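Methods — Computational structure assignment.
A single polypeptide chain was analysed. Its primary sequence is given first, followed by the predicted tertiary structure written as structure tokens.
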Amino acid sequence: MNACILEALKDQVKLRSNLECNSFADMQQLQQEIRKTMNEYLSLQTLNRLFGIIRNDFSPSLNTLNIIAQYLQYNSFREFVELNDKPGLLKKLATFESKFIFSVFSSLDPDKDDGQVLQTVIRNILNITNEDPQIASGLYPAMASIPFGRRYFLERYVNMDSLAKHYGDGLSYYLLYAKSREEQFFAYNLHCLRYFLTAEHELFIRYFAHISGFPKEEISTYQPDRIGHYLASIILDQSVSGKQPAQLFATTDNIGIPRSGNKPLVYQGWYRVIEALVLTGEFERAWEKLNDPILSLSGNNCVDVDFQTQVNLLRLISGFYSGNIPLIKARQIFAELNTRPLHTTVHDYCTMLLLLLKKSLFPKAVGHKETDAKIDRLIMKTGFVYFHTYEKIVKEILDNELMDINGKKRY
């Protein structure tokens, strides 16, 4: 038995149960909690020996380890080991900030509060964390433990700029407190996006394997944004594995994003799909989806201004690199987009896309050394080393398509 893995398992039990697990009384509470949530029985002697309250050499059985792993929302102890081969989650000391957040939000019902008020509150919190990363490190574990925090803070506001940092660490806590398979599914897909952007392919493959284990019949019952994340992961997997693009939107046996329902979630789902197409160089397919009149992603009143800016950025990138937006028009759109404020969660991420696009739109402009330096700094800051590969993809497309001065493809 790997001692580090066992310690990680115990650390996560302490987090989930909110117990110190250092007394017989704690073990009684833990036993009741496991019986209540899992309908499984572990003896007090087993728990006391596992947590070292009874001192002796003890090697827990696989059945015991499986029950505890399932209590922690994993399918089995084997899955726990696969997803926790790094140092386990450490229980962070409670800070003033995390206590404050918990006291403010823990009693909120995510289904009954005014959306606009909540958006304002969360935007303010995000701005604070952006200025002080130390607050963010205590914030995400606190938010992950609260239904409101998971729903509105971690799910609705995917912090791309911190996907490989505080937000990404928050996903581990999110999984720890996940109450449903749909929540787990959401987190697994975001892990795929994270490890695609950080070019850690082994970790991407590992999490994609967990996504692939979900039955399609079950996935089809999930929220539209979840389905969008899933389709995006399939597109990213095609790039990682070198497969030919699958006909995701043509075959009847694949899962589709509903065209109706909660419109913001439908748009978020399609945005993730189009984003994945853009990131993997499938610009023509992205352009087709963005111009689907049924989807009408941009200019819709159901989405906020920041989201429209992100959609329009994808529209410009896919349109220019596919030859559907001529060079002069692309430069005009770029000038307009470049003046718009970006949401704090995507500021660095979208800035990288804009800088790379700038190099393509103005290839003969002076000062590209400064642009390259900015891109390198942002890649170092975010950890998204994939953008080095992305730059090669767009350069190759421009070279191969032989674009004329108007930016239209020569056939």
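Note: The radius of gyration is 23 Å.
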